[in-house]
Amino acid sequence: MLELTNIQKIYPNGRCGVADVSLALPRGQIVGLFGENGAGKTTLMKCILGLLPHKGTVRLDGGPITRANIEKLAFGTCEHSFFPNLTAEAHRQFYAEHFPHFSHRRFDGLMDFFALPRHKALRSFSTGQKNQFEVILALSQGADYILLDEPFAGNDVFNREDFYKVLLGILEEHETVLLSTHLIEEVSGFIGRAVLLKNGRIAGDASMEELEEQGISLMDYVKTTYHYRADRVGRALNTMTEGE
């Protein structure tokens, strides 16, 4: 289990990135992390990974995260974490040398699925291809907890829909995925749990099974939690066209 207790991140300019977040992510879950721009999704992931100094504790399977167990965490980010001058094949060799549970079978299968070139430098990839390769590395590393931050930017809807199906088919029972995305409706049938952030705090946390039993769609749950105003478009248009 990945356990976050009272995680807080205040940036030097005084802006609050994450405010007192406590969250438990058991093995075998696919969790959607939702929130408006600036809600704290990326900041929270980076705190989990130790990429940002923060207050609070992160425990991995009952203990602190150290060099001995950090390989259990993988990160796929739209900011990109690969080596742009290396080829995909060179990345495979590098990861296989540094991660003992690296899955060559999964790497090959996903490379074929996305039809990515193996012997071109990553800098020559399109934005969508770069994001696809980030996901491939994260899923092939052999980690138990896979954090994906807006992994589908630049990908067409068919690639995304097919990828969800592939991901459901390849994940093993011990693997947990934390997926940050704005594509709420697309992932509603794919995730098992929805965690909502607002202003750096958890505003909602519900299983898809609970929502289904209540007859509530994920989008309606999100809108209700964020107090979405359906008349905001009309009010904006009236304000801008008044007196014309």
Summed up, the helix count is 9
Output the CATH homologous superfamily.
P-loop containing nucleotide triphosphate hydrolases
Give the quaternary arrangement of the chains: single chain
Structural class by secondary-structure content = alpha/beta
Terminal CA distance = 59 Å
In sequence order, what are the helices and strands, one letter per element? EEEHEEEHHHEHEHEEHHH
Strand order of the largest sheet: 6-7-8-3-9-10
Q: Give the low-pLDDT segments.
A: none
What share of the residues lie within helices?
25-40%
Q: Count the beta strands.
A: 10
Major beta-sheet overview: 6 strands, mixed
Cα Rg: 19 Å
Shape: globular
The appropriate CATH architecture is 3-Layer(aba) Sandwich
Tell me, rounded to a whole number, the average pLDDT: 90
- β-strand amount: 15-25%
Task: Assign the CATH class.
Answer: Alpha Beta
Q: What is the CATH third-level topology name?
A: Rossmann fold
